[in-house]
Amino acid sequence: MSKPPLPPEAVAMLGHANPCVMATLRSDGSPVSTPTWYLWEDGRALINLDAGRVRLKHLRRDPRVTLTVLDKDDWYTHVTLIGRVTETHDDVGLADIDRLSRHYTGSAYPDRERPRVSAWIEVDRWHGWGALRDSDQAAT
């Protein structure tokens, strides 16, 4: 696996509204994955969670996380970001979830009733596959 920074091609792909799966760790250490939206900014990823979701409890207990981002046009091409949540904050006014929703749907987030929390993920390692295969990936 490679260390940041990511190459320009991977950064360009991460700038799009791609499908993404996030993995967190349960209290017993077993992984759990869920689809999520993300924004890639300045070498880190922003995610947003409903304040009542279990995965937020997972991240607060153990900040280690992976995001696997699939190129929306070629799912064989993907980038996995391995890192940790380094910052969380209440999403006051739902500004961050609106940014994410506009990125993916073109509209503000429709559910305005429940509080949300934003989390920034710092990348420690990454690997790519398909068109974004990183140089540290073993050849087959």
Reported for the largest beta sheet, the result is: 7 strands, antiparallel
Beta-strand fraction estimate: 35-45%
Instruction: Provide the succession of SSEs.
Output: HEEEEHEEHE
Which word captures the global form?
globular
The unreliable regions are: none
Q: What is the count of β-strands?
A: 7
- By DSSP (H or I, 4+ residues per run), the number of helices equals 3
Name the structural class.
alpha+beta
Q: Please bin the fraction of helical residues.
A: 10-25%
Which quaternary structure do these chains form? single chain
Mean pLDDT: 95
Distance between the termini: 15 Å
**What value does the Rg take, in angstroms?**
15 Å
**Strand numbers in spatial order across the main sheet:** 2-1-5-6-7-4-3
Describe the structure.
By secondary structure, the protein is α+β, with helices and mostly antiparallel strands. Helices cover 19% and strands 43% of the residues. It contains three helices and seven strands; from the N terminus they run H-E-E-E-E-H-E-E-H-E. It has helices spanning 8-14, 54-61, 95-105, and strands spanning 20-25, 31-35, 39-41, 44-50, 64-71, 74-90, 116-129. It starts with 7 loop residues before the first helix and ends in an 11-residue tail after the last strand.
